[in-house]
Amino acid sequence: MEFCDDCGSMMKTADGMWVCSSCGYEKxxxxxxxxxxxxxxxxxxxxxxxxxxxxxxxxxTTSAACPSCDNDEAYWYxxxxxxxxxxETRFFVCTACEHKWREDDH
Length: 106
Fold this sequence. Notes:
This protein is mainly beta. Helix content is 5%, strand content 29%. The protein is elongated and about 60 Å long.
């Protein structure tokens, strides 16, 4: 990954050059430096966790009433969707119908 020297935006590769999609700044790619970079494609198979066959989608469950089907269990996760000084938002996904809803602290 390369960042623009002028504006700091992430650059993309095109025809052997790094090109900034924000300001148009270009610079040549450094092949020697790129050979030293580590990419995720080189990860060993044992480092990858496959959860595609998991019933829980890799998420914890809790007792929560689904507003769509009245099921009493849901997967849950928390995500920061507002500014950093605000609390996180809790999201729930019904284990039966996969309806998704959220709970905010106000």
